[in-house]
Amino acid sequence: MQRITSLAACRELGGLAACSPGVRAWKRGPTFSKQPAVRRQWAQGCVRPLSGEPGAQGRRMCRRRVAFAAQKHRLLSSQPGADGPPGSSDGHPAISVVGIPDPITWIRCKVTIFLIKMYFDVDVNSEDFHRGVKQALVHVSDLMSRGRYHRLVGIVSNEMIEYVEKTCRTLTNAQRQQLAVKMDDIIFMLPEDVSVVFDQHGRKLCFIVMRFWILSTHDGPDDPEGTKIFKVASREDGGPQKKIVTAVYEFHRELTRGASPDWMVTTVWHWLWKAAE
Fold it and tell me: Beta strands 23-28 and 31-34: pairing type?
C-alpha cells in the first residue's frame, strides 16, 4: 500500500515538470528527463459551483474564481503576473526530484479533500484553488517584505498579523526583503493537513495547511524539507546559488450554508525566519 501511494505521489511530482520550468522529473526509475514548460490556460465552458450554496446541487454555472478575503483584484491567466511574467523563468537552475513527500500524509489529505468535495461541493483540489493559494502566498510575502503589515488586515487573521510583525522585527532589512516570493519561484506545493471542524454553534469550519517549495537565494542553512525532495544544480554563470526553501500557510473558510466563501490566512511560516535565528 505504501509503495502504491508513493507511486501516486510521484505522478504529482512528475506533473511538476509540465508547469515549472527547469524541473527534472521521473520518466522511469532513477532516470531523469527534462520536460518542456507548458503554460496552462483557462478552460472555457462551465463547471459546477465551488461553494455549497442553496440550489448548487444539480445545476451548472460559469466558472467562478476562488475568493480570498479582501482580495479586490483577481489575476486572470491572460494577465501579466498571473503565472509569472513571460520570460521570468530564464536563469532558473535545473532542479531534480530526489524524493517524495510522506505517503501517509498524502493519502490522508486526498481522502479528506474528496469528502469535502462530496459533502460540501467545495473543490480544494482545483486549479482555481491552487492558483488562489499561490497568489495569496505572493501577496502576503510581498507585504511582509516591505513592512506593510497594516495591509494584511482582512487577509490574515489579527492574531497572525501580530505574530508576523513581531517576527519580522527581528530580521535585518535584507533578510526581510528575501521573504518576498515571486509566482515563478514557486516550484511545488502540497496540502499537509486538511480538516473540517464542527463547533458548538453548529458552524462547519475548513482548515487547509499548504506547504510550498520555493526557490530562494538566501545564504543561510539549507531547509531539510527542501533538500529531502528537490536538488538544485550548481550555477555555472557565477550568479548567486539558489536553494529550495519552504513556507507553510494555513487557510480557513467557513462551510456553513450562507457563510462568506472567502478564505482567510490563519498561519504564516517561512523557513527564512528560522534560518535567520
Answer: antiparallel
